[in-house]
Design a protein that fits this description.
Layout (H helix, E strand, L loop, with lengths): L4 H11 L19 E2 L2 H11 L3 E6 L4 H8 L5 H4 L6 E6 L6 H6 L7 E5 L6 E6 L4 H17 L5 H11 L3 H13 L8 H14 L3 H12 L5 H17 L3 H18 L8 H18 L2 H21 L3 H5 L2 H11 L6 H10 L5 H12 L3 H14 L5 H14 L3 H17 L7 H15 L7
Parallel strand pairs: 1-3, 2-3
Antiparallel strand pairs: 2-4, 4-5
């Protein structure tokens, strides 16, 4: 989803970040035991035990990943599935996983894969965060495909293979053919539609993406499935600058409002929060500031309620980036300070709380505090994850009247990534390039 106005800038710099040991899955005897970042070991174990291989691919800056790792993947319901699969977690920012990512490229976080162990063929591919019921459906789908040798799933497997190799036009057509054969109740439908929309997005076809999303919403009986499709479709409708897109935004916004009222337990907190996010984006895009602020107030109350209900520091911090976005829309950065300060105390090895505190201080015009918090974050961030912190620090320097220093910081960071052979399409590299471009576009001679 292409990022837009205020929310887009915040998502770009600070929207979904978490790294360091504190992002390891919460200790739980309920969820399955994962092999971390060792594809060869996991594949060997899956072959020996003749079980399908479940792969959770995540990134150290991904909020949806963090939410899944602290809630969904620790569910007792998954613990009951433990002996049916071998479980692998892949951090896409870890250099050790380069071979895995060359075979299974990831451009949406989190991505869930279920692999056949002998040849490593993809049995199931699902893009984006999912709820426990959705994940159980994916597991059932993967186990059935493994036992039957993918009988009946050849079209979907072909579509996934095309998408993985970057042939998105052919993939979109294949997803369309696969979905046409399924009933609305088919557990494969929602994930396949999301993949279809993502391929259309990769092609730059926002109009087709939003049309397909609107069409498919009516074929999905479950609110969590509709929410996944709605989120991607709304992003496409916001990207398309047409009268049709503007009308469709309103239609999708009404669907989002209905979904927000779904009974408790039908949506994960992260999914429900995303519905507030897209609702605010629609009001922002239409210039309806009063409605945006009213919805942002409701969003903030929801986030506060979730903070009091959280069972762990990891679960509480999973929505911190949404707290930053909500108070940004309300122009009340001070409202989130105590929550983020608590996260920094409870997760002392995680760079995200101080990075987000830097954002709040920057919003408040407190440049010295912002820079100090950014330095604390930078001391904790490792590898590619430093990109978002450096991008945020450059913003602070620019706001402090030090644009030349900010540009030099970003240029040096990009040079280091180039020397480290980080791919040009790596998200952290794109973050740095975009912020550097924004600073240069602001015009005026560089400050000393």
């Amino acid at each position: 989803m292409t990022m837009r106005p205020v929310l887009g800038v915040l998502l770009l710099l600070w929207g979904c970040a978490s790294s360091s040991p504190s992002t390891q899955r919460a200790n739980s005897k309920s969820g399955p035991a994962f092999i971390e970042n060792d594809w060869e070991r996991a594949l060997r174990e899956a072959r020996e035990k003749q079980r399908p291989l479940f792969v959770e691919t995540w990134a150290p800056w991904c909020q949806s990943c963090r939410s899944m790792r602290s809630t969904v993947l620790t569910s007792p319901a998954l613990g009951e599935q433990e002996g049916r699969f071998v479980w692998l977690a892949i951090d896409t920012d870890a250099p050790a996983n380069e071979a895995f990512l060359q075979r299974y490229p990831v451009d949406t976080w989190p991505t869930v894969l279920i692999l056949e162990p002998e040849q490593g063929a993809v049995l199931v591919r699902s893009l984006g965060g999912v709820s426990v019921p959705q994940l159980l459906g994916l597991l059932a789908q993967g186990e059935q495909a493994f036992q039957r040798g993918r009988a009946g799933g050849e079209e979907l497997a072909r579509a996934d293979g095309l998408a993985l190799t970057g042939h998105h036009a052919e993939a979109a057509a294949a997803y369309q053919q696969a979905v046409a054969h399924w009933t609305p109740e088919d557990s494969r439908r929602a994930s396949a539609v999301v993949s279809w929309l993502k391929s259309l997005t990769a092609m730059g076809d926002a109009v087709s993406c939003m049309r397909v999303a609107a069409q498919e919403l009516g074929h999905l009986p479950r609110v969590d499935d509709r929410t996944r499709v709605l989120y991607v479709g709304m992003g496409c409708a916001l990207d398309a600058k047409t009268d049709e897109a503007r009308a469709l935004r309103e239609q999708l916004a009404q669907e989002a409002a209905r979904a927000r009222e779904a009974p408790e337990g039908t949506l994960t907190p992260a999914l429900r929060s995303s519905l507030y996010e897209v609702g605010c984006e629609v009001h922002e895009a239409s210039g309806d500031e009063a409605s945006m602020r009213e919805l942002a107030e409701t969003w903030w109350r929801f986030l506060e309620e979730q903070a009091t209900r959280a069972r762990s520091a990891e679960e509480r911090a999973a929505l911190d980036s949404h707290r930053v976005m909500a108070v940004a829309l309300l122009a009340r950065p001070e409202a989130a300070l105590s929550r983020l300060e608590r996260s920094e105390r409870e997760l002392p090895e995680d760079y995200n709380p101080p990075a987000r505190l830097a954002t709040l201080h920057l919003m408040a015009g407190q440049h010295e505090r912002a820079l100090a918090a950014s330095e604390r974050a930078l001391s904790l961030a490792k590898g590619a994850s430093r990109g978002t912190v450096l991008a945020g620090q450059a913003r602070i320097l620019s706001a402090s009247g030090k644009r030349a220093q900010a540009e030099a910081l970003l240029t040096q960071a990009l040079s280091e990534l180039e020397q480290a052979s980080v791919p040009k399409n790596h998200l952290q590299r794109q973050v740095l390039e975009r912020v550097l471009s924004q600073l240069r576009a602001e015009g005026g001679p560089p400050s000393p």
